[in-house]
Amino acid sequence: MGNVIRVQHLNYTYPEAKHQALTDVSFDVAKGEWLAIIGHNGSGKSTLAKNLNGLLAPESGTVEVAGMTLSEETVWDIRAKVGIVFQNPDNQFVGATVADDVAFGLENRGVPRDEMVKRVDESLERVGMTAFADREPARLSGGQKQRVAIAGIIAQRPEIIILDESTSMLDPAGRQEVLGVIRELKDELNLTVLSITHDIDEAAVAHRIILLNDGKINEIGTPSDIFAHGTDLLRLGLDVPYSEKLKDALIQRGVAMPKAYLDNERLVDYLWTLHSTM
User: Fewer CB atoms near the end CB (10 Å): N or C, the chain?
Assistant: First the structure.
């Protein structure tokens, strides 16, 4: 499959800061993988994202994206490969209508008009927002706004999408709506997804999770590996999946439970089986 991102010994310190924001960070991301990056506030998650597309320049270490080593010469080529969906979609809107907004990035890149119209239509259809093409972005719901922001990124045909806390301002229904769109697009277009998030449910859909703590990689593993730590995650300023909270409460009440992490669906299956044998 091959790696589409390779980060080696990355260090970054903000000007005037007494401590490094990132210390000796190294990891690879395979093409088509969904990688979640989690950690408490100030753990370095967003700093890492900004180092990946050249918004910040590493103090030392290297970042390779799509076979290119990040530098002043390659930064614009790399940004063409990486689309970022930010926390607040209102900060990304510039067009008077939804269609204008999706077209904005294409206009900046000099995409011919016929091609632009085709890409705008395709992108809005992919995120289920065709009927809203002539609406003002400000009149949309939070979930709809994020769908439009995603359409604007998809229209530019990136290889990698970074979700930078992009579901954190949404209600649970809006969050599931947006994650569902990203999952479908990822599979359809073979995108690589990096999800920078506080949301444990969002991290749970990833193939792997990087757990950052004070700018250092604490652990890299599958969701099962990471969430098996259960309430120990609270020490790192993270929430614990609902299924782990419930499992821990049942153990406190003397119910025999497996040590391995169970997501909601598997926990329900386990409890039904347990109930049927009682």
Answer: C
Do 167 and 36 lie in a common domain? yes
Same domain membership, residue 165 and residue 253: no
CB of 140 closer than 8 Å to CB of 97? no
> Stretch 64-79: mean pLDDT, rounded?
92
The CA–CA distances, whole Å, from 62 to 11, 12, 220 equal: 9, 11, 19
Q: Tokens in use for 8?
A: 């080696």
The Cβ-side half-sphere exposure at 154, using a 13 Å CA radius, reads: 27
Task: Provide the token pair at 147.
Answer: 């769908």
Domain that holds residue 95: 3-240
What element of type H or E holds 164?
strand 160-164
* Per-residue pLDDT at 278: 65
Report the catalytic residues. Answer: 165
3-state secondary structure of 54: coil
Q: Residue 67: left (phi > 0), alpha (psi -120 to 50), or beta?
A: left
pTM of the model: 0.83
